[in-house]
Amino acid sequence: MDYDTAFSSVSNLRGSVQVIRQAARNFALEQSSRDILILMNDIKKQWGLFTDRMTKLGDHLDKASEAYEDLLGTRKRQLDKPFRELDDLLIQSDVDALANGNSQDRSTESE
Q1: Do residues 94 and 106 make contact, with C-beta atoms less than 8 angstroms apart?
Q2: CA distances for 22 relative to 8, 14, 27, 61, 90, angstroms
Q3: Which residues contact 106 (CB under 8 A, 6 or more apart)?
């Protein structure tokens, strides 16, 4: 095998080594950049999945809140109405009892 030998000065050798070192750094930077881009793509994908799930959870919470408001509002009023009517009947029966001269307490009537 024939080897060619090139003689150079120290400054030329130093320049050649620096060029090789810079090429190695550039290569490492390129590899790191690719790895970062892959990770960023994965993060973007996971972020999309996360925000979709958060949106769905928000929708479920909104529906639960609406159901709670319905229960607290409409359903409560519908249940309060017969209780008010019952109270009115009890008050009226107390007034009728007093008007008829019956002053006995209702709690003693049941005994």
Answers
A1: yes
A2: 20, 12, 9, 56, 97
A3: 94, 97
- For 103, residues 6+ apart whose C-beta sits below 8 A from its C-beta are 97
Predicted TM-score (pTM) of this structure: 0.49
Q: What CA–CA distance (Å, rounded) separates 53 from 42?
A: 17
pLDDT tens, N- to C-terminus, the chain (111 residues): 677 777 778 888 899 899 999 999 999 999 999 999 999 999 999 999 999 999 999 999 999 999 999 888 888 888 899 999 998 888 888 777 777 776 555 545 544
Domain segments of the chain: what residues? 11-101
End-to-end CA distance of the chain: 125
